[in-house]
Design goal:
This protein has four helices and five strands. The chain is an alpha+beta fold.
Length: 159
């Protein structure tokens, strides 16, 4: 009887788990166990164009004006600067849609325990490169921007 009960429990648990997969794992890395800044140089191998171009321009802006905030003055994966890690970890939900070598992973979460303005919906676009999912773009459905469309002019001094 126990194997039947276990099978019944697994059949109930599996549909929710089926929403996540390898593409979602590439996104989850930036949220758990702690938030990681996407623009950090040590994570560049997890990205592809056009986002890598923006990161390179951001690096150049930081180098040209070391005392100023570069182009990315927020965490793109959060669409924010501040957050509560416990709340984010508890509320994070990932859903993926894979179409061949392309995927979209939608991350929904809250930045803080209270407040409607802390809810976020982020859409991560991924491409499979050499068998690995790499992030090509990040868009905020909450705020209506796309990372690849952000301007970064490293040779211009900030105003």
């Amino acid at each position: 009887m126990r194997p039947i009960v276990l099978a019944a429990v697994l059949s109930v648990a599996l549909p929710a788990a089926a929403l996540a997969g390898p593409a979602s794992n590439a996104v989850k890395f930036f949220y758990l166990p702690q938030v990681r800044f996407e623009g950090d140089e040590q994570y560049r191998d997890r990205f592809t164009e056009p986002v890598t171009k923006l990161f390179a321009l951001n690096d150049q802006a930081a180098k040209n004006n070391p005392d100023e905030v570069a182009c990315l003055d927020f965490d793109p994966g959060l669409d924010a600067q501040d957050f509560d890690q416990k709340t984010l970890a508890k509320t994070l939900k990932l859903a993926e849609a894979v179409n061949g070598d392309s995927a979209e992973v939608t991350a929904t979460f809250s930045l803080f325990p209270e407040g409607d303005d802390s809810k976020r919906e982020m859409v991560w676009s991924l491409k499979k490169v050499d068998g690995k999912w790499k992030i090509a773009d990040i868009a905020s459905k909450t705020s209506g921007w796309t990372l690849s469309a952000l301007e970064c002019m490293p040779d211009k001094a900030p105003e």
